[in-house]
Amino acid sequence: MTPGRRSSTFTRLLRHGFTDPSAAERLLDGPELTPVRNDPVLLEALGATADPDLALHGLVRLLEAQPTPTAHRELLDTLIAAKPLRDRLLGVLGASAALADHLARHPADWQALVTYEPSDLHPGVEEFERGLAEATDPVTLRVAYRRCLLSIAARDVCGTTDVAETAAELADLATATLRAALALAQQNAPEDAAACRLAVIAMGKCGGHELNYVSDVDVIFVAEATEQSTETEALKAATRLASHLMRICSETTVEGSIWPVDANLRPEGRNGPLVRTLSSHLAYYQRWAKTWEFQALLKARPVAGDAELGQAYVDALQPLVWKAAERENFVADVQKMRRRVVENIPAAEIDRELKLGPGGLRDVEFAVQLLQLVHGRTDQSLRSGTTLDALQALAAGGYVGRDDAARLDEAYRFLRSMEHRIQLYRLRRTHLVPVAEEEQRRLGRSLGLRADPVAELNREWRRHTGVVRRLHEKLFYRPLLDAVAQLAPGEARLSPEAARERLVALGYADPAAALRHLEALASGVSRKAAIQRTLLPVLLGWFADSADPDAGLLNFRKVSDALGKTPWYLRLLRDEGAAAENLARVLSAGRLAPDLLMRAPEAVALLGDGDGGGLAPRGRAALEQEILAAVGRAENAGQGVTAARGVRRRELFRTAAADIVGSYGTETSPAEADQGALVDRVGAAVSDLTAATLAGTLRAVVRDGWGDTLPTRFAIIGMGRFGGHELGYGSDADVVFVHEPQDGVDEHEASAAANKVVAEMCRLLALPSADPPLLIDADLRPEGKSGPMVRTLKSYEAYYRRWSLVWESQALLRAEPVAGDEELGRRFTELIDPLRYPRSGLGEDAVREIRRLKARMESERLPRGADPKLHTKLGPGGLSDVEWTVQLFQLRHGWEQPGLRTTRTREALAAAREAGMLSAEEAEILDEAWVLATRVRNAVMLVRGRAGDTFPTEPRELAAVGRYLGYGAGHAGDMLDAYRRTARRARTVVEELFYAD
Known about the structure:
Blueprint: H1 3-15, H2 21-28, H3 40-47, H4 52-65, H5 69-81, H6 83-95, H7 97-105, H8 118-121, H9 125-132, H10 138-157, H11 163-188, H12 190-195, E1 196-202, H13 204-207, E2 217-225, H14 231-250, E3 261-262, E4 275-276, H15 278-287, H16 291-297, E5 301-305, H17 307-321, H18 330-343, H19 361-375, H20 387-396, H21 402-426, H22 437-446, H23 453-476, H24 481-485, H25 496-505, H26 511-522, H27 527-544, H28 549-563, H29 567-575, H30 577-587, H31 592-598, H32 620-633, H33 637-664, H34 675-706, E6 712-718, H35 720-723, E7 733-741, H36 747-766, E8 776-777, E9 790-792, H37 793-802, H38 806-812, E10 816-820, H39 822-836, H40 844-860, H41 879-893, H42 905-914, H43 920-944, H44 955-964, H45 972-995
Parallel strand pairs: 2-3, 2-4, 7-8, 7-9
Antiparallel strand pairs: 1-2, 1-5, 6-7, 6-10
Helix pairs in contact: 1-2, 2-4, 4-6, 4-7, 5-6, 6-10, 9-11, 10-11, 11-14, 15-17, 19-20, 19-23, 20-21, 21-23, 22-23, 25-26, 26-28, 27-28, 27-29, 27-30, 28-30, 29-30, 30-33, 31-33, 32-33, 32-34, 33-34, 34-36, 34-43, 38-39, 41-42, 41-45, 42-43, 43-44, 43-45
């Protein structure tokens, strides 16, 4: 073979999807494929399979197994000439190594794929019975079963049948197999066959006509005596027949096994008798059966044995199934069972579990079955044992939204298709998505994902499980289902007791109050009440996901009472996907956001994803423009500042709502993974809003007292967290004021005007009103509280030149002009730069003084009784530790490192790391601690409605802080441990960097 030809073939094979072109080239050049080596039809067909390498290898093995040259030639000729056979055979070989093994052992069975008639496309039980008719023992039954399975798999992988049709065919094949196995057992013991009437009832997926390729076949056996036998003799005979039937199907032979027959769904499970009479079954279900056993009976279907007895069994037990929803704790029992299933999944497997994991197949099946059991009592159209048929009936009857049903249907079909193809490969019972990339590639290609099979498979899989998880929770946890389930036959009102129980299960501490709110919101025949009845089941589930569902529901009632007559309110919640969930999260996350919303409920429009502006923060320029325009329309300073504070309240709500939604996550987007980004967004948004509010207040006060021009230039300098763009929800505005007399204006007059402006700004921003106050704190000015509130630029210059202390240089690191005269603000910055970034850095005396001040602050300022390890500001590893460490870097090296000349802590920390002042690991530890401490402070303000530097002690408030930080119910202790651990690591770094010489 010439190198050129090899290169050309190698490239062609790669293009057709082969992953091992060298091995494929050798097989194509081998003796088995010599006659068709260069036929493009073969290569195209191989390239269309899920795994071309596997298909080619299986084809060569099949050809090698042909008993004669004539058989070999017949297979090759048919393969090239007949496209249906080619697609079917190669499709199976490329998807199933197990069926390739079968064909290699039984090389004539490929001919089962040749027939391509309409009757062959959708075979039923009768056709499969004919296919199994020649079986005379368990071994030949397995061979015949595999031959039938081969034809099902061929139709499946070629797309002739969809996933539901494939599952139905597998159930029909199982039915035919159970009948054949029973016939073999009866032939083996004709005296037992004569002594009893035995019926086999299929349960589970076989009973539901939706079987997998490899699955336990769940059954229940029922028997009656014949005229020639007593009941005891009949039961013994039936038990022997049933046991033999199970062995025929389950035992491993030279041809493997078919599938396990599982009779554990019978009364009393494996502890009960294998076979019972109909009256015994009926007595058990009437007296002893648990809720899940009635749920299992939804899928009961007679499939083998005495057909009349099988039908009598179903007819006798079906009425009990549809009374199950009247049982006490029915919904709670079903939910508990589902949770128990999830909890029993090994942690290492839960993310790969297609069937049982969150968002898996079982979620769809449980939700559909719950709805069937509740509503199927009065609506017989819902009584199908097949999941997709039942889902369609639920949608047709209005019990499930059509869009929800369509999305669930699509997701269920995709997940079942994944399950089928995973099992088909080795014909092994598994529901785990494979980890190996080559297996994921085969799986993705088998589902038609060809561009980037692995990436597309994982994207589609996660998308569909996300859909199932969201919709399952929406349906499964509909809190009014329990009340509906308690309706007595013919009774039209809800049972308050059942509704209370359901609310308690969802975490409501005061179910009686919750019921009153529900009644007020949803009673009546108005359009408003009808929409509320649609919204409330979903909202209640979201409230239940919070630490305080009661507060969420109460707040929702308050907002609805305030806005109920507004035409856009309920329409927004109903029609805009994000609005309802966002509102539920905001109303149940704590006090701050609901309090801000209640003062102007129309701000709920911000929660939508349409034209309401959304939750994206607005920049300082846009905020300042709006506030200044509102001030310009006001008649006096009081009205102007009121307008500015109103904008501030609305924008604080926007910021808080965005923070809550980002921290909790929603159905359409997970919680924000980057905690630092959340902190930065809040800090920037609140700081910009404070700056814009101060600018508007300044304009209002100046215009009211002096018209267009103040006798002195005036600037406001942000300090502390304000200057650092790191304000929290409860932060005061740390500032210093600077002015400079206008040309020709007396300095005394200018100073009086500046002081009057400051006093009036502080007064107007602190006035009691419906809007939260903005407190101005000027204690970081020269001489602190003893010094004048406002100074001229020259006075600042003189003070700093003569009297400035090292702590003041440190405080000036965060100084940044935020409002007023921009030129004056710039000159103030130029004045202080040499103080905060001293040339040649700090002297050793100054460094010692900073360390002394830090140690004194730690010992004197920590509140009495506070746990230092949980104090986010002054405790070890808290904000003060990180900020003083970063600020020491700035004071020592800011003059030579431009990156350190920033007012923002995280930016300065990153610059210090880039400059090699600390390692990447140390920087990450400090950054994580600072972000976490800031998040805790924000959480405390959101939850309690007032600022705090430590974790709340009240359990619900602590749980709400945990929920904001990503911890589920019952994990507050984990949150505190994580904080202590993070702070402890940070303190170790601080002691090394801040205190060490």
